[in-house]
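Review box. Two proteins, two foldings.
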Amino acid sequence: MFYLIKDIDTQFSRALTPITPLLLLLTRLWVAWVFFNAGMLKFQSWDSTLYLFEYEYQVPLIPWRIAAYLGTATELIVPVFLALGLLTRPMALLLFIFNMIAVVSYPLLWEKGFFDHQLWGMMLLVNVFWGAGLLSLDHLAGRARKPSRLME
């Protein structure tokens, strides 16, 4: 019985291995798109952003104005790295922590947007644990560091 289970699992693993890079790319692009769009909205309506950070969001430990600048910069810069698959693990971890801070800082989010933030958090953790995959600049950089057989 256990051999049958192991055999089925092995067959599924072999079948899914070729599409794993697509899954990793999808998770990166999805989350990058969501956070980048949020950053663009903050940037385009800067007065509203400052108001929200001063009166609505309750970011712990740092002053609201610094939180507004850091939050907007994070949402505009980190998703670009994530989409490209460049420094994917640290960028995904940074955005995961940012996502957690957003949930903690904005209690009104719990009613309508908490599920979305959970989904994005899980997608980010996929990239923290498994990296960016074959379809990324991280992978290309890793290949470039390995010596070519032609050079031997």
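Next protein.
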Amino acid sequence: MTPIRQAARTARAGQELLQASGDVIARRLEIVAEAVRAPLKADLREMSLMGSEKVEALSASASVGLNAAASLAATTAAVAARETAAAQTALGSVLKAGNPAEAALAQGAWVTAAMSRAVSDGWAFGATMLKLQADALAPIHAAAVANAKRLKK
């Protein structure tokens, strides 16, 4: 999926989440009000779900975030190692150059390649962050949408 489509899909999911959350909150406030008016008729099952479902969805979301953070850290370390090696190779080429023009060419080749890798890495990082956002939102979205459907009168 392209980054643009991923972002659009996540934005739609965010909108659905907001709508579903509003519906769930409104209905659950009614349930709480009904429980205050008639405690013996309170919907204890639904009231107990109000907290446990949030904890479950937020835990799943946090797990996604932690796993992604670990993956990004590993990727960042690999990129740093790759760039360090490229810089060392470039420095060796500059030092081995027979004249200033060859040194400038070696340095220019390194700069051009480094900029290309930076752009590529930047796009990859952006795509990874879009996927992380979608994946972290998914369990919260799923819980809210399911609750909204279940609680409709």
